Amino acid sequence: MVGITRPRPGEHVNANGVWDLLQHKGKMTVFSLCLLLCADLLDLAVGYLTVTLEPLPPVVVGETVTLKCNFKTDGRLREIVWYRVTDGGTIKQKIFTYDAMFNTNYSHMEDYRRREDLVYQSTVRLPEVRILDNGPYECHVGIYDRATREKVVLASGNVFLTVMSPPNNISVVAENTPAPFSRYQAQNFTLVCTAKGGKPAPSVYFKRDGELIEVISYTQPSSEQDGGSAGVRGARPLISRDLDDTKLQRSLSLLDPEGRVPRQSTDSPQRVHTQGQQSHEPSPATEVIPETVVSREFPRWVHSTDPLYYFSHTNIPQSDGSVVVQARLTWTLNPQLDNDALFSCEVKHPALSMPMQTEVTLAAPKGPKLSMSPTRAKVGDTVRITVQGFQNEVFPEPLFTWTRVGGRLLDGSTERDGKELILERVPAELNGSMYRCTAQNPLGSTDTHTRLIVFENPSMMKNTQNQNNGASCVDIPGLTWMALVLTVTVELT
């Protein structure tokens, strides 16, 4: 332990305590004396330097951000350098430099336009920030060493810039569509809402007819089972067809309270004309048969006024820093209750002042409109029968199936899928044949018929006549030659 003696009364004490200690020889070791002397010299040579950066609130893409670096020092300023840190801190990109030796500043950014006040604060402006600007920034300040101008003392500070981006696109689709209509077997139905371009990930929720849906959250399986969304984990299992009573000739749900079978809504359809449209007779080339709506016979276990909705969502990070959110709403579909129901998907995000929304209305197809090209088909023509649209907005996308009433299609198949039926080089035998188009989605099904009228082709008839005339001309010289031969034979005999 080093002892320090007090000065005698009246003895002068030097302001620099080191020299006072030198007067007391033998009171401390030489090593301790050197340490105190070095500390005193360092305090005289090296000044202090503190660097702090003002924190930043989250900003939205497109806004202008100003980074502020505050520093205090009693030394002479040498330089200020700003860095943008990327790749987890492994790469530092220089964005601004101030050199006090030449009293100049230099921007490494294209949008730097004005000289900053660099006395006690350095500011850097980032105009119209992007998602890629998100991340940490560092401010490095250097001052001269008091002992020598060849050495520079450095200090730094950092701040994290959080850039938010609202979703730029939301959409709602039905999963596993197009799909057929199932009359006797309940099936799960899933709506998928996709929100793209958001950072951070937005919150997504569903509404039905304007009311928030109470959902049961579940974890989506890693591998989808057969049947798509029918394999919802924790969802209410569907009743097996082998366990219900729908194998009876007629469902018990079709009986009225007195046990009688009510009359089905299968009356002969009538042609309905929309107001503003004129009634027109079918052309002689095509006979349009009115639409036939398939009657819906639902078992009693399908009817549920309070279905259970199951909700799940997944976040998919993108290379630009945004997140794609996919939210799924699954429930057991009831075509009688869910037809014409309005479902909306709403997205909330801190960068939005109000939620974004998109909506769809579940609807079964009604009144398919068919067109035939050419309108006056002749033998040998290629005929196209196409679905042009419906009388209503149909969602989800319907499934189209074509069949020929009372026979097979021209290629020998029993049915064909797609919005268009193509009959290549129709023969005369197809005249009067009738074709059925079935449009269906999980909410319902409808049939529309059209009759094909095939006319004779004059060009083909002319070619046939020319071929027959050519054959006759070839036969005449042959007969003449045979007659000459017979004449010569008779004269010789």
Structure notes:
The chain has 493 residues and is mostly beta strands. Helix content is 13%, strand content 37%. It contains four helices and 29 strands. The chain has helices at residues 17-23, 30-45, 335-338, 458-492; strands spanning 49-53, 59-60, 65-73, 77-86, 91-99, 104-107, 121-126, 135-144, 152-161, 163-164, 169-174, 188-198, 203-208, 211-212, 215-217, 286-293, 309-317, 323-332, 342-348, 356-361, 369-373, 377-378, 383-389, 399-404, 415-417, 420-423, 434-441, 444-452, 454-455. The strands form eight sheets. The chain has a five-stranded antiparallel beta sheet with strand order 6-5-4-8-9, with no helix packed on it. Strands 11-12-18-17-15 form a five-stranded mixed beta sheet, with no helix packed on it. A hairpin with a 4-residue loop joins strand 5 (91-99) and strand 6 (104-107). The longest helix is centred in the last third of the chain and has 35 residues, at 458-492. The chain is elongated, with a radius of gyration of 44 Å. The protein starts with 16 loop residues before the first helix and ends with a helix. The model is unreliable at 1-19, 110-119 and 223-285 (pLDDT under 50).
